[in-house]
C-alpha cells in the first residue's frame, strides 16, 4: 500500500490550525497507522499511533483521526516548535511504509 | 528509558559492504514485543524501511524488496545489539541510516496490534564513494 501525503508544503502562522492528510492506496487497519514529526538534523519522533492515540509526552493540541484509506493529523494552536516535517507511516504485510511527508512552514 | 547507540563508518566504497551496529541500553534485543529495525533516509527516496529482526520463540527477519538479496540484519544477544549489513553498495545507497525499535502492542479491546516506531537512533550519515 502506498501512502500519499498532502499538501506537500503547508504555510501557516503560529496560533493557526494545521490539517495534514495521509491517504492510503488500500484500506488499512487504523491500528497500523502512525504519525511522526521530524526536525532538521534529528530523527523522526512518534506523535500518534493507532491513528488517534497520542504517544507519551505529546501535547493535546496534536490529534489524529481517520479510518480505511483517509487519515488526518490536526495540530491546533500552532506553536513555533511545531514547524517541521510530518510523516505518516503504516504497517502492512510484514513491512513498514512511509508517506512522502508534509513540510509545515511558518508563513 | 530505552536508548539506541549507532556505530559504523560514514564512508563506504562502491561494491563494498556497508556495516552498522546499534547497541541497545534499557531494553533487551530478545524482547517479545519489539522488532529491531533499520530505516534510511535520502532526498531521493525519503524515509525507507529496510528491514528488521525480531524474536518470537525464534529469531526471524523481514526485508524490503528494494534491498532483498543484499541485506542482512542480525541480532547479537551477548552484546545486546543488532547489526545491518548491506552488500554491493552503490552511490544510490548514500543516505542517513537509522536504527529503531518498532513496537507491536496488543490493542486493548480487540485482537489487533498497534505497530509503531517509538525509539530511534541518532542516525549515521553513510556516503558511498570511491
Low-confidence segments of chain A: none
Number of helices of chain B: 0
The count of β-strands of chain A is 10
Element-by-element helix/strand order of chain A: EEEEEEEEEE
Q: What order do the SSEs of chain B take from the amino end to the carboxyl end, as H and E? A: EEEEEEEEEEE
Mean pLDDT of chain A: 97
Mean pLDDT of chain B: 96
Structural class of chain B: mainly beta
Topology:
The complex is a heterodimer of chains A (107) and B (130).
Chain A: E1 3-6, E2 9-12, E3 18-28, E4 33-38, E5 45-49, E6 53-54, E7 62-75, E8 85-92, E9 95-98, E10 102-106
Parallel strand pairs in A: 2-10
Antiparallel strand pairs in A: 1-3, 3-7, 4-5, 4-8, 5-6, 8-9, 8-10
Chain B: E1 3-7, E2 11-12, E3 18-25, E4 34-42, E5 46-55, E6 59-63, E7 71-76, E8 81-86, E9 95-106, E10 113-120, E11 124-128
Parallel strand pairs in B: 2-11
Antiparallel strand pairs in B: 1-3, 3-8, 4-5, 4-9, 5-6, 7-8, 9-10, 9-11
